[in-house]
Amino acid sequence: MPKRVVIVSAGMGEGHNAAASALSDTIQDCWPGCVVERLDTMELRGARFARAARWAYGFQLSAVPWSYAVFYDLLSRSDGFASAMKRILGPFFGHQLSGVLEAKKPDLVISTYPFGSAALDWLRSKRAMDTPTVTYIPAFHVHPLWAYQGIDMHFVMYDSAPADARMPDFGRSMRLGAAPVQAGFGTFDRAEARSVLGLPQEDFYVLVTGGAWGLGDIGAGVEALVELGPPVHVLAVCGKNVGLRAELSRIASTHPRQLDVYGYVSTMPQLMAAADVVVTNGAGVTVLEALRTPRPVVAFAPLAGHGTASTAEMVRRNLAVEARDVPKLVEEVRRLWTRPDLVKTMEQAGERWVEGRTLRRSLSEIEAFYLEYGGISPLNNVVGGSRPGPARRPAIDRTEVARR
User: Fold this and answer.
1) Do residues 165 and 141 make contact, with C-beta atoms less than 8 angstroms apart?
2) pLDDT for the residue numbered 85
3) pLDDT tens track for 80-130
4) Are 354 and 317 in contact, with CB atoms under 8 Å apart?
5) What is the pLDDT of residues 345-361, one digit of tens each?
6) Which of 13, 110, 177, 199 gives the lowest tally of CB atoms within 10 Å of its CB?
7) Is residue 171 classed as helix, strand or coil in its secondary structure?
8) What is residue 397's predicted lDDT score, i.e. its pLDDT?
9) Residues of the chain where predicted confidence (pLDDT) is lower than 70
10) Strand partners, 5
11) CA distances (Å), 1 to each of 19, 133, 293, 321, 363, in order?
């Protein structure tokens, strides 16, 4: 088994880091003695650059979402544009990553962020790096910046990802992975979770969250939902968005029996299990947490780009419904509240989606590939090609893994 693993992530939202944490925990459970280190892709270019990138990304999504929608659409539809972005991002982050990996000499590198994957692909092609590489995609849509010839395994959340990856032979390196979420999601039943949280058993609970950054039209949505009246009860999680929490706390002061407001919580597995429905912006790891629980998802005013794309994939599989504005949100929540059969149908779709998928199983597939690759020793694994490693072996397919 690998003895040293580096996970390349980024603090662009919390989803990429949450996936890195879940993978790190599973590795340490399954590979005793393995040392796991994590890197932030953006911080490879310096702390000031990372702060600026996080601010710019949050500003773009909240203030000028149309610009991100245009970028994402171009990325998803134009092979030329996607290739140009890859050529820019690979060396931009790859040069810095080269020195870090040369010092750490990992047996295996896992990326949960597309720019990190771009850097690894560049190191594979330009610096003769022969370390096994894995990309684990914590989103329900794969855009071309996630897909690279130099990555040995791509773990995705849905079976039609090759069409979106737009990379020849992507299916050969693709694996259907488990939702990379922290332990606890899917382990509580509804009654148990409500008891732990001190919530009445009889209410209809709607969990509303915009992820760690509190993105989306959360305030307007919560205000409309509390007007539905009992037994609808809203649990609003604001993450690190202090302004949103203050806004919703004012609403809660006039609806104390219908709205509970939270900041950044460590009890999300229990909150999701207690809910009947999860309302979110359709993006990131939050939807994967809801599906793992599983709870029906209402994608409310989906975020531009990855939010709308992920929502479309989930709706096709009966895992979510879309509400593009506040009136549609109220309509969908009322429909689910009055149609327990529909809630059950969507929960069953979620159960089928997670069936057989665990991070332990995903890790066993990585381990099987690692053994097939040759069990590379870090002593043979120097970035820059000064000491060649063993000959690379092609990625094995799922049937080979199953036979093992």
Assistant:
1) no
2) 97
3) 999 999 999 999 999 999 999 999 999 999 999 999 999 999 999 999 899
4) no
5) 999 999 999 999 999 99
6) 199
7) helix
8) 43
9) 375-404
10) 36, 108
11) 21, 15, 30, 42, 11
Please list the residues that pair with 43 across neighbouring strands.
Answer: none
Please give the Cα distance from 147 to 149 (Å, whole number).
7
| Amino acid (1-letter code) at residue 240 | K
Question: Would you call 167 helix, strand, or coil by DSSP?
Answer: coil
Q: How far apart are CA 44 and CA 116, in angstroms?
A: 10
Residue 403, pLDDT score: 35
Give the CA distances from residue 237 to residues 192, 249, 331, in Å, rounded to whole numbers and listed in that order.
20, 11, 21
Burial profile 189-198: b = 16 or more Cβ within 10 angstroms, e = fewer:
ebeebbeebe
Q: How far apart are CA 121 and CA 21, in angstroms?
A: 23
Alpha-carbon gap, residue 166 to 170, rounded angstroms: 8
> E strand or H helix at 5, and its extent?
strand 4-9
pLDDT reported for residue 396: 39
Kindly list the structural domains of the chain, giving each domain's residue range(s) and its CATH number in brackets, ordered by start: 4-178+357-403 (3.40.50), 190-354 (3.40.50.2000)
Written as six digits, the tokens of 250 are 């004012």
**pLDDT at residue number 340:** 92
Determine the Cα–Cα distance for residues 318 and 347; give it in Å rounded to an integer.
9
The whole-angstrom separation of Cα 209 and Cα 205 is 13
**What is the residue type of 83?**
S
Cβ 3 vs Cβ 37: under 8 Å: no
**Overall residue count recorded for the chain in this entry:** 404
